[in-house]
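Why do we care about 3D structure at all? Because function follows from shape, and shape follows, mostly, from sequence. That is the central idea of this module. The next example makes it concrete: a single protein chain, its amino acid sequence, and then its structure expressed as C-alpha cells.
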Amino acid sequence: MLNKFAALALVASTLLSLVQASPVPSMQASSSSLVLQKRTPAEIITACTVPNSFAVTFDDGPSIWTHELLDYLLLRNIKVTFFVNGLNYNLITDAPFAAVVKRAHDEGHQIASHTWAHADISAPGVDVASQMKMLDDALLTIIGARPVYMRPPYGNTSPAALEYLGSQGYKVVNWNVDTNDWQHPLDFKADLDAYKVALQSLTASGQGFISLQHDAEQGTAQVWSKMAIEYVISKGFNVMPVGTCLGDTTGWYRS
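And the structure:
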C-alpha cells in the first residue's frame, strides 16, 4: 500500500515540476497583439482646409451627360472631383462610360469612390468591403489606380463602416453645401439659393467649402454646374478638387 502511495506521489511531483518548467504566456505580449489589431476609424471630412478654396463635387456618375460637363471644365481650365459608382444609373465598365471616367481622370479631375452600387453602408447586412473592392478593381482597369477618397451614399456611415474604411486607408468625404439638385432637377434658383445660404453662414467661420451635386442629373450636367462654378468664382473663391482643397496633391490614388 505504501509503495502505491509512494508511486502516486512520485507521479504528482513529476507533473508539478513539468508545469512549473513550462513557459507561462506573457500578458504583455497578449496586450501588444490586441493593440496591433485595433483599427482607427476614418474621420468624416466636410470642409476644405486650404484658404479660399471651394471643392465642387459630383456624385452618381458617370452619365450620358458627363461629357458635356467635361467640355465646359476643359474650356474653363477648372478641375473638380467625381465620386463615381460602378452600377447605378449606368455600368461603369461599359465602354462609353469607362471612356468618360478615363477622360475625366486624364484631364486632371479627381476620381473618387461612391461605392459599387450606391449602397447605404450604414445599413445592416451591407458588405462594405465588397462594395469598395468591386469599384476599386473596375477603376484600376479604367484609370490604372484605386481611389483613396470616397463618399458614402446618402452621406450615411456607421461606426463599423468607418472602422473598416479607416483600416483600409480611405478618406471619407461628405459636404457642407448641398444643393439637393436631385429633388428639383430644373429649379436652378433653388440650387443657387443653397450656395448663397452656405456662403453667408459659413464664410465667417473661415471654412472652405465642399459642395454636392449630381452629374447624373441632366440639368446639373448641362446647366447648373456652370452656373455654380461661375457663381463661386464671382465670389472670389478658387475651385479645385477635394484632394487639393485639403492640401493633398499626391495622395489621391494607390496602385
